[in-house]
């Protein structure tokens, strides 16, 4: 970071801790905790790279400052790094031994392999592409029900002809959606309801 | 519209250039890998010298890569293509020459055309593929699969032949084609795009 930027940051910090201090003098200590030490994301990735031996290619727009409150920067592992990327609206995927880091608006375009279920070894913040087969419910009817439970950058679509759903999202959230879909499907099956051919396109 | 897109792209490309001008030296602190900001063109030049591969580079290919733990002087072919892809450049293989362009123009270039999924292309090489599902309606596949492709890619259905045309990086084309295959295999009813009436 350039000295001028640091100056500006210090100035801002000073101002933000000053304002509440004027109102309630006892709160100054809390402010310090909240704005505590931080690390540039690039530096954090470099540390993870060193420790894990992974190689990274970063989108030039990848820049963020990560607060290190409660975080030992020398112990951040790959799953934790993915979580940090997620909260900074970034996503990563590993292909041919290299981890690509990009804004998560691009995440559904990552060429992650297609699967029908999420293996237990898949990290919660890794991207997955799933094809899920509905048995009793109409796949198309579950889209408006489930889509709001996904981030905007994710993708959910139904193909009525095969009554299947395509899911592109982080594995953790995809697991939740698949679990919900299974429950809906089971309930519909228990009630003896099925998706009729004419219903599919609705 | 295309000219506007090019302009934005040029503007985007010049941004990292300015950013890197501030800190050109590799950064390394104890306990962390080296972060390097090499010029894309220089990385390509070095790679070409080392491997003898020939490149034609679009003059708009100006950006600084951000590489962590990767030595730009020993970069592999796959890593080079991935670096270009992350910076929104596409690579098209034409005979023994590799053409590097901003990816917005990639689908207009003469890429290899494949009709089966066993094609041999590196993950980030740009390809054009024609798929013909047996049962699934190609036109219905477009709106549900197109969002999984970047804006620079292309996907369209031909009604008469029931085919899909895909133009994208090879790895993503393989993914889309796998999805088409899965959906096609699970499709029921009559082949094609006729809508089934209830009770018919």
Q: What is the terminal separation of chain B in angstroms?
A: 47 Å
User: DSSP helix count of chain A?
Assistant: 6
> Which residues of chain B sit in consecutive blocks of at least 5 with pLDDT less than 50?
1-23
Main beta-sheet annotation of chain B: 4 strands, mixed
Low-confidence stretches of chain A: 6-33
Instruction: Say how many strands of chain B there are.
Output: 9
Describe the structure concisely for a colleague:
By secondary structure, chain A is an alpha/beta fold.
Q: Could you please describe the fold and organization of this structure?
A:
The complex is a heterodimer of chains A (202) and B (200). Chain A is an alpha/beta fold. Chain A folds into two domains: 20-105, Phage tail protein beta-alpha-beta fold (3-Layer(bab) Sandwich), CATH 3.55.50; 112-192, Ribosomal Protein S8, Chain: A, domain 1 (2-Layer Sandwich). Chain A is built from six helices and nine strands. Chain A is elongated. In chain A, 36% of the residues are buried. The model of chain A is unreliable at 6-33 (pLDDT under 50). Chain B is of the alpha/beta class. Chain B folds into two domains: 2-104, Phage tail protein beta-alpha-beta fold; 111-186, Ribosomal Protein S8, Chain: A, domain 1. In chain B, 34% of the residues lie in helices and 20% in strands. In chain B, the strands form three sheets. In chain B, strands 6-7-9-8 form a four-stranded mixed beta sheet. In chain B, α2 packs antiparallel against α3.
